[in-house]
């Protein structure tokens, strides 16, 4: 999360004088043209300096509104100044702390990408992505909070998080969590006392030219552990690519869906996860030979206890040609 932007917003909210079409606002540390403001209700709002030609429709979602080509007055440093510029205004419509922080972080990334004098087509494109991102929060979750936490742990704990995020797949029809087009990585977590995981037969049957590793860890609820957002903050500090940061935000929001607002209430024991984190080669895990399964039977799932299975060590030397596995 961008701590500087968060501090600016908290300061703005403490002296909020927004009323009607005049808003309390402040300059952003990374921009000479765009502003961060606060609505009359105390919600964050960004003023993106822009002038879009041609017809363009505003957006009004449950969580955000986007208003194009707006003239308004801004109060900067407690002094009312009439701003002659035209702005695209993006407003969050909730004071949920996790959504506020997420909103501030995502818009900051977008502004960094489009620059101080955004190309109109690029701005429209990024706004469409933003709207799609926040629309995800009205959809059912694709995975459990525990499952997403485990995948974020693997990324945060990895040698090359940038590459793992590029290989990250979270659609419901994806067989493997990470797939770079060559090798596969599947993440399994449990909050129980034994290392028992549920597999589909397909998850232990990669194509012949691929290798597959299973990551296994215990994810235990903890009153003072880390949340999904804590892991995201840690990961973002290790990333250099703006596109990778955007993909991280997109995957987390689309995966959580309506669970986003409560995800910050779930804390898990990071040290326990680190201590229990093991990697397994798929051929070492008991499975069902596909040749013994009648053609009429499909969608096979089973549970397997990995407690007595030997875990892998020295991954990079064992799979020296695998960029995915060397990233773990």
Automatic annotation (TrEMBL):
Domain of life: Bacteria
Family annotation (Pfam families): DUF4420 (PF14390)
Name of this chain's protein: PD-(D/E)XK motif protein
The species this protein was found in: Prevotella bivia DNF00320
Lineage: Bacteria, Pseudomonadati, Bacteroidota, Bacteroidia, Bacteroidales
């Amino acid at each position: 999360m961008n701590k500087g932007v968060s501090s600016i917003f908290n300061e703005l909210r403490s002296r909020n004088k927004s009323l009607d079409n005049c808003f309390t606002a402040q300059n952003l540390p990374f921009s000479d043209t765009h502003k961060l403001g606060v609505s009359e209700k105390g919600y964050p709002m960004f003023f993106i300096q822009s002038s879009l030609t041609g017809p363009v429709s505003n957006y009004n979602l449950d969580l955000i509104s986007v208003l194009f080509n707006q003239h308004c007055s801004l109060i900067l440093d407690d002094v009312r100044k009439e701003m002659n510029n035209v702005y695209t205004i993006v407003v969050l419509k909730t004071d949920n702390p996790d959504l506020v922080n997420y909103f501030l972080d995502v818009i900051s990334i977008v502004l960094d990408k489009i620059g101080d004098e955004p190309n109109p087509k690029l701005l429209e494109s990024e706004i469409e992505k933003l709207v799609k991102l926040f629309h995800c929060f009205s959809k059912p979750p694709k995975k459990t909070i525990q499952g997403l936490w485990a995948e974020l742990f693997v990324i945060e704990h990895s040698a090359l998080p940038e590459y793992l995020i590029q290989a990250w797949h979270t659609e419901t029809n994806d067989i493997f969590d990470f797939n770079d087009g060559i090798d596969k990585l599947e993440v399994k977590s449990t909050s129980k006392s034994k290392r028992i995981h549920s597999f589909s037969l397909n998850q232990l049957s990669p194509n012949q030219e691929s290798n597959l590793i299973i990551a296994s860890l215990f994810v235990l609820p903890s009153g003072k552990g880390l949340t999904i957002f804590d892991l995201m903050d840690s990961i973002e500090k290790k990333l250099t690519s703006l596109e990778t940061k955007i993909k991280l935000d997109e995957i987390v929001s689309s995966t959580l869906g309506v669970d986003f607002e409560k995800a910050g209430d779930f804390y898990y024991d990071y040290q326990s996860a680190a201590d229990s984190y093991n990697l397994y080669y798929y051929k070492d895990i008991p499975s069902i030979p596909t040749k013994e399964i009648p053609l009429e039977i499909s969608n096979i799932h089973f549970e397997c206890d990995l407690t007595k299975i030997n875990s892998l060590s020295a991954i990079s030397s064992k799979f020296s040609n695998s960029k995915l596995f060397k990233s773990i």
